[in-house]
């Protein structure tokens, strides 16, 4: 039995298309793999503590090395976790400097999946920045999937940060990563599950 942690992005949820297709694909092709999809807090200042508590309450995630898939902000969180606990991560159009990106989004938001109203404040950016990992201790622990047409993030930031890892760069596409399910066999292979 293997365990995979899937981390959704900002303004997303376990009900996102990628999260659901990941769970469905593993259930169909590798039923011995448990995919964990926690609903992450909309507040960046709370999410890191939430993740640590989740991992502490699910020690099976660390049994044979942490295996995590992170999309967008989830990719930033996944990098933090791998640098902290070890393991491997697959990052999909990951946020590299979310504290720079989200500074333009301070104020009130509504999560479209949960309808939760929340407010981003400057302190959230400080928390995000404090947990940045500028130098990766094990660059080969990362398989990074980028599409150049990402309208939300500049893929070149991730290309530069993870250049010593495994990079898959597709021309075009968008922030959702078009045709993501086609990559799930390679994702499972990289994470050594199935």
Automatic annotation (TrEMBL):
Sequence intervals crossing the membrane: none
InterPro entries: AB_hydrolase_fold (IPR029058), UPF0227/Esterase_YqiA (IPR008886)
Signal peptide bounds: none
Name of the protein in its database record: Esterase YqiA
């Amino acid at each position: 039995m293997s365990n995979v942690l899937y981390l959704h992005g900002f303004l997303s949820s376990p009900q996102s298309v990628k999260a659901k297709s990941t769970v469905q694909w593993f259930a169909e092709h590798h039923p011995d793999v448990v995919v964990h999809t926690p609903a992450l807090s909309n507040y960046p200042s709370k999410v890191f503590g939430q993740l640590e508590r989740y991992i502490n309450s699910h020690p099976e995630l660390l049994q044979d090395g942490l295996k995590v898939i992170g999309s967008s902000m989830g990719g930033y969180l996944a990098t933090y976790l791998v640098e902290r606990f070890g393991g491997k991560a697959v990052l999909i159009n990951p946020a590299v400097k979310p504290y720079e990106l989200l500074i333009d989004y301070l104020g009130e938001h509504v999560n479209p999946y949960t309808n939760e109203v929340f407010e981003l404040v400057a302190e959230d950016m400080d928390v995000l920045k404090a947990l940045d990992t500028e130098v990766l201790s094990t660059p080969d622990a990362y398989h990074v999937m980028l599409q150049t047409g990402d309208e939300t993030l500049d893929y070149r930031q991730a290309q530069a940060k993870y250049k010593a890892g495994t990079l898959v760069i597709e021309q075009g596409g968008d922030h959702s990563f078009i045709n993501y399910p086609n990559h799930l066999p390679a994702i499972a292979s990289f994470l050594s599950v199935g």
